[in-house]
Write a structure and sequence with these properties.
alpha+beta
């Protein structure tokens, strides 16, 4: 996460990034807070650099769990 706007880099609002990537708003915010995506925050809104999002989407990722969570049987 950067604390300033880089004027020559195109950026997306969080809503635009959700539509472009298919990821949830909360997951994108998590990626920004953990510096896995580059962007900046103005007031309460995150802005994501388009090239950073494209690079993240192009990189292979580990798939998530399949199916519902297993619950422990109650005894």
């Amino acid at each position: 996460m950067t604390d300033h706007v880089e004027g020559d880099r195109p950026y997306l609002t969080t809503s635009q990034a959700v539509q472009r990537s298919g990821l949830t708003r909360s997951y994108l915010s998590h990626l920004l807070r953990t510096n896995r995506l580059e962007g900046f925050r103005l007031a309460r809104e995150w802005f994501i650099y388009a090239d950073s999002l494209d690079a993240f989407l192009a990189a292979p990722r580990k798939p998530g769990p399949k199916g519902p969570r297993k619950t422990k049987p109650e005894t």
